[in-house]
Design a protein that fits this description.
By secondary structure, this protein is mainly alpha-helical. Helix content is about 45%, strand content about 10%.
Length: about 500
């Protein structure tokens, strides 16, 4: 691979569950690099672990990427010259590569049972070495083709003994590579185990399939999570043994919980943080906001700018500006992003997105009334579905805020509210300007402070003591409904 080769990146999830929010960040960074360079964004489904396969997981990945606006160029549904794009359909390639490694002395056959491997670990376990590995220090005492004769190996295979293929990690070597996020990284091969490359069922492990597919698909750049960093020396040893040039590498920082530590499903559940993309979609988050938030969860544009659309991210993105340190996940910050992106939508679009939640709260609602309510509340919404909390915009309040009543409803409130209702009955225009003017004239006529009227009227008309501008709210509620609500409050509250 030359440095000027057209960029080809891949997002390669395993279909073992719903698309994780961290997985979407990985997909996003790959997508941004591809679009920025005029390259290709490949989706590859790494489904070699059949024991953990979830039938609907691939569909969820496709839906999640589409929801986020990350268009795939090549993949299981799009096709492409490098297909097939499911690893379960590429087994012949892995078998050929495994045989080349065996023939070249870079891999070996091992017959050890799980019990025998565990017994080996027990023999070598010490305080200084709590987790012994199958490696150069232990492979000599195990049942593998390094110690058995060719005849013994052939006989055991012929009689059906289960075996795996393991990578033969060379001793006393240092594997050095450049990571575009972390700079120069090195590993001593003494720290690397003899990784299983082909399992006893003939399926490749992630490590072999990953290397073979990245090479076969012409992947030039790999952007993936930090958890794969320790696997790099195994992969580079295979690239070297097979005579292939490895792609450029970039390992992303961990997404941390607000309390520190990796954002695991357990910690996320405890803190009420959704972990799957589907949960964010179902909760009413704007895809543009989630993408914007995730882009800045590890990457810094080098300016004070925070709000980006997808096209803006493509233009500004730079792999070299991805940080090394883990980044804390903040639901408050995501809610802020969501509100900012929501306000960029038209009132009609906000109303369309809010429609299901509003109807679930109050029943059928007039489209025009919903659009007017969306326009009124847009600056106060974090999500479109929040509009459903302002039920008073669509139906008369049944109760009144107790704290607001205690603070705002005085002995003269009923009389002032009733008088204001009379003024509104005479106000044929019923605009923001006319309703405010009517209240100011009433305050002047009664010799009462403006606040002595405005707060009780808000309580009477909405049942709440806070909200959007009162007169704008009254116009959205409508003249007839406002007068009816004011008169009912006078009767109920006295």
């Amino acid at each position: 691979m030359s440095d000027d080769a057209p960029v080809r990146v891949r997002f390669a999830p395993s279909p073992t569950g719903l698309l994780h929010i961290g997985g979407l960040r990985t997909a996003l960074y790959n997508y941004l690099l591809a679009r920025q360079t005029g390259g290709t964004f490949v989706l590859r489904i790494e489904d070699t672990d059949r024991s953990r396969f979830v039938p609907d997981a691939e569909r969820d990945v496709l839906d999640g990427l589409a929801w986020a606006g990350l268009a795939v160029d090549e993949g299981p549904t799009q096709g492409g010259d490098a297909g097939p794009y499911r690893q379960s359909e590429r087994r012949g390639l892995y078998a050929d590569a495994a045989q080349r490694l065996l023939d070249g002395g870079h891999a070996y056959v091992a017959f050890d049972t799980p019990d025998e491997i565990e017994a080996m670990k027990e023999r070598h376990r010490t305080d200084a070495n709590p987790s012994p590995r199958y490696d150069a220090a232990t492979r000599g005492e195990m049942a593998n083709s390094l110690g058995l004769s060719e005849t013994e190996v052939a006989d055991r295979i012929a009689r059906g003994d289960e075996y795996v293929v393991r990578l033969l990690v060379p001793e006393r070597q240092t594997v050095v590579f450049h990571d575009r996020v972390r700079g120069e990284v090195s590993f001593d091969t003494a720290e690397v185990d003899d990784q299983v490359l082909v399992k006893s069922d003939g399926m490749p492990t992630y490590h072999l399939a990953n290397v073979v597919d990245d090479h076969a698909m012409g992947i030039t750049d790999v952007i993936r999570g930090e958890e794969w960093l320790s696997s790099v020396p195994k992969h580079l040893l295979m690239y070297r043994a097979l005579g292939w040039t490895p792609p450029r590498l970039a390992h992303l920082p961990l997404i941390l919980s607000p309390n520190g530590g990796k954002l695991s499903k357990r910690s996320a559940d405890r803190l009420g943080i959704p972990v799957s993309v589907a949960q964010y979609r179902d909760a009413g988050f704007e895809p543009e906001a989630v993408v914007n938030f995730l882009a800045l969860l590890g990457w810094n544009p080098g300016t004070d700018q925070e709000l980006f659309g997808l096209d803006g991210l493509v233009e500004a993105f730079d792999v070299e500006r991805i940080g090394r340190s883990g980044v804390q996940f903040s639901m408050d910050k995501l809610e802020w992003f969501n509100g900012q992106h929501l306000r960029q939508l038209s009132a009609d679009e906000i109303a369309r997105r809010a429609h299901p939640a509003v109807e679930a709260a109050v029943g059928p609602v007039d489209d025009a009334a919903l659009v007017a309510a969306a326009d009124l509340m847009r600056e106060r919404l974090s999500r479109a579905s929040d509009l459903a909390e302002a039920t008073y915009l669509f139906q008369d309040p049944e109760t009144y805020d107790p704290a607001g009543l205690n603070k705002r409803w005085k002995d003269d409130s009923a009389g002032l509210v009733a008088a204001y209702a009379d003024r509104l009955e005479a106000d044929a225009a019923f605009t923001v300007e006319s309703t405010e003017a009517a209240m100011r004239r009433l305050a002047e006529d009664q010799g009462a402070g403006f606040g002595r009227i405005v707060h009780p009227v808000r309580l009477a008309a909405t049942g709440t003591s806070v909200g959007a501008g009162l007169f704008e709210t009254l116009v959205v509620v409508g003249r007839e409904a406002t007068i009816r609500r004011l008169r009912r409050a006078v009767d109920v509250l006295g």
